[in-house]
Design a protein that fits this description.
The protein is an alpha+beta fold. It is built from ten helices and 39 strands.
Length: 672
């Protein structure tokens, strides 16, 4: 858990209400809990019958000077010119800092004349002229959340709502800062009543961070409610929010949506693979899709992600079901969403730092039994047929998003072919490696004239040691090919891109192909004896905030900004400083036997922080702790990792968000 830096968020967060969810969130898995209350009935009419889609400036500009009238108009223009309006985005929302710090003599809000020289009504008119809608921001408190302290609406609900309606506002984000301890239900119902009294339909977005479990009472008050604290543009933040929002599926539906916060897609803190996961998972959760990047500087890749109409259709499906967790063992997530046409949207999400095979079945995701199914890949825009198995090799932090139907038209499509490696591709330095690829027909129809080709970087030699072709593969059959892979002498330790291409034909002769990017790691064997893990190279390291630190604590920002590793006043010279959600992977090469460490919450955040530690040997959890807090001394953790190729050190947030979750693997050692 963490109190956000001023430059990344404007709100001081306490533990969110997700702490009340009795689940342990992490690589070990998450089962969707049974609903404690019946889902609210879906309204037949009204605002936000599908999750709102649009733009909010905060994640890209905060309160900086570039947030102004020209920016807002420019975003509206880009919605039209880049096809985002046609894709379904309609709200252009202003966040904090649009007003002057003081009300006028009549107690009314005054738009900042520098930022908005023509006023909010003129901006609304411009946005409306594009066929779009305008949103605005205030707080259910005496002041808003920015440190300047702009006027909040507490005690001014009626007059503020009237101003918003008179200006032509269509959407209100209503925050929770400076609330003076007034009951949340009372504050948000008062604004609801004030908005309704204006006679103008205005979507009410309740932003109280999940502190009072709004999913239990806010249906009929607002159309969406935040379930967590603020998102930030990093993998750990996105992952933590995902895990807090997923169990709340029973409470979502048309006109009443769980809101896991705005999109970070395009802001630069994650890879495009991670952003595709972010967008896919928000869509399968039926979350509001509010763009948080400055579209004026967005890359083509960012626009491709945000504009994927097939993924958006999952989010905007009129049935309004939020996806539920089918399985999540070992960081291999399957999340399925029932669609209005009877199909299922299925997200195969890989939480881990290495590629993994993720599999489920059509019946497991809720489809009726059938001889075969049509399966459409919503990122590859390709249809195949499957006999019932839904599976893919998913890259690290990646998501394969499918739409699977028992539609009777499956025979029109070529069979689904699963491609992958039988084990992770590690190449010990200056030593040829043998890799085995597998091509498996998942379809009801045979794959014919199957061929596999594995290629490496320039200068690498890749040679097949066994047949790489097959005349036909019937349902469930596999073509396994052994390859000798030789990297040039002296190739540095690191990750290298290989590619597995498979070509085949359907029974009707239709050509099909699939490409699987493969990340091969050139590694050095672990040294014999017992070594400190902070002295060894890692395969990968992911952290909730800031980098993983060697022999110091995690300071949340730049490398080296932590202090001595300190757990309950005991200082340790060696170890790893991380921040939940965190994962560090090491190559063990089947040569090691034991991982040991003293683990706990670092002292640097005072009394805050709660985490759990896990050690994984390949895909098996070898050891773990209960949730640990700052009040506890370091706990010894020992794991048997005999025979493992990869050892992973995982820190989860304990189920209550990642605020202040500074975790230490003190005296962490690997015995080989």
């Amino acid at each position: 858990m963490r109190h956000p830096h001023p430059h990344t968020s404007r709100k001081h967060r306490t533990r969110t209400a997700a702490a009340l969810l009795a689940v342990l969130l992490g690589a070990g898995g998450l089962a969707a809990p049974a609903a404690t209350a019946a889902p609210p009935a879906a309204p037949a009419e009204g605002p936000a019958l599908t999750p709102p889609m649009g733009f909010n400036n905060w994640n890209s500009t905060h309160c900086r000077a570039e947030f102004n009238e020209d920016m807002v108009k420019g975003i509206a223009d880009l919605f039209v010119s880049e096809g985002l309006k046609d894709a379904g985005y309609q709200y252009v929302n202003l966040d904090d800092c649009w007003a002057l710090p003081q009300r006028d003599a009549d107690g009314e809000l005054v738009p900042d004349p520098v930022r908005f020289p023509h006023g909010i009504a003129a901006v609304a008119d411009y946005v409306h002229s594009k066929g779009l809608k305008l949103g605005i921001y205030t707080s259910a408190g005496t002041k808003t959340c920015d440190t300047v302290g702009f006027p909040g609406a507490l005690g001014h609900e009626v007059s503020d709502a009237r101003q918003f309606a008179d200006w032509g506002v269509d959407y209100l984000k209503y925050d929770n800062c400076n609330n003076q301890g007034v009951d949340a239900r009372q504050r948000y119902r008062t604004m609801r009543d004030a908005l309704q009294a204006t006679g103008r339909p205005i979507v009410l977005s309740i932003c109280e961070w999940g502190e009072n479990k709004p999913w239990e009472w806010a249906s009929g008050v607002g159309q969406l409610w935040r379930t967590t604290g603020d998102i930030s543009d990093n993998w750990g933040s996105m992952l933590s929010i995902l895990k807090q929002n997923l169990p709340l599926a029973p409470y979502a539906g048309p006109g009443h949506w769980n809101d896991p916060d705005m999109l970070e897609v395009g802001n630069g803190g994650m890879t495009d693979t991670e952003y595709r996961s972010h967008f896919s998972l928000w869509a399968v959760m039926a979350a509001p899709l509010l763009i948080g990047t400055d579209l004026r500087t967005a890359s083509a890749a960012t626009l491709d992600i945000l504009g994927n109409k097939e993924v958006i259709a999952v989010d905007q499906d009129p049935l309004g079901r939020q996806g539920t967790v089918v399985s999540s063992e070992g960081g291999r997530w399957v999340v399925a969403k029932e669609m209005s046409d009877g199909s299922r949207a299925v997200a195969l999400f890989n939480e881990s730092g290495t590629a993994q095979r993720i599999a489920t079945s059509a019946t497991a995701v809720g489809l009726p039994r059938a001889s075969a199914y049509t399966q459409r890949d919503l990122w590859q825009h390709r249809d195949t047929n499957t006999a019932g198995t839904i599976a893919a090799t998913v890259p690290a932090h990646g998501t394969v998003l499918l739409r699977v139907s028992a539609d009777g038209r499956w025979a029109e499509h070529p069979p689904a072919v699963e491609t992958g490696l039988t084990e992770a591709p590690f190449i010990e330095q200056d030593t040829p490696a043998t890799l085995t690829t597998a091509v498996t027909d998942l379809g009801r129809t045979p794959a014919r004239a199957v061929s596999a080709t594995l290629t490496g970087p320039d200068g690498w030699i890749v040679r097949a040691l066994s047949p790489a072709t097959a005349a036909a593969l019937p349902t469930g059959a596999s073509l396994r090919t052994r390859w000798r892979v030789t990297a040039p002498p002296g190739t540095a330790v690191g990750s290298y891109a290989l590619s597995l291409r498979v070509r085949y034909r359907s029974p009707a002769g239709e050509r099909a192909s699939t490409d699987l990017p493969v990340t091969a790691s050139v590694v050095v064997p672990p040294p014999s004896g017992t070594s400190y893990l902070s002295d060894l190279p890692w395969l990968s390291a992911a952290n909730g905030w800031g980098p993983v630190e060697r022999d110091t604590s995690n300071g949340e920002s730049a490398a080296g900004d932590g202090g001595p590793l300190t757990i309950n006043s005991t200082v340790y010279a060696k170890g790893l400083g991380v921040h939940a959600a965190g994962e560090i992977a090491y190559y063990a090469g089947k040569r090691c036997t034991k991982v040991s460490a003293q683990v706990g919450v670092d002292d640097e955040k005072g009394t805050k922080g709660s985490v759990a530690f896990e050690v994984w040997a390949d895909g098996v959890k070898a050891a773990s702790t209960d949730v640990l807090t700052k009040a506890q001394a370091a706990q010894p953790l020992t794991a048997d990792v005999s025979g493992a190729r990869v050892v992973r050190l995982v820190v989860t947030d304990g189920g209550d968000g990642i605020d202040s979750d500074h975790a230490d693997w003190a005296d962490a050692r690997l015995s080989c």
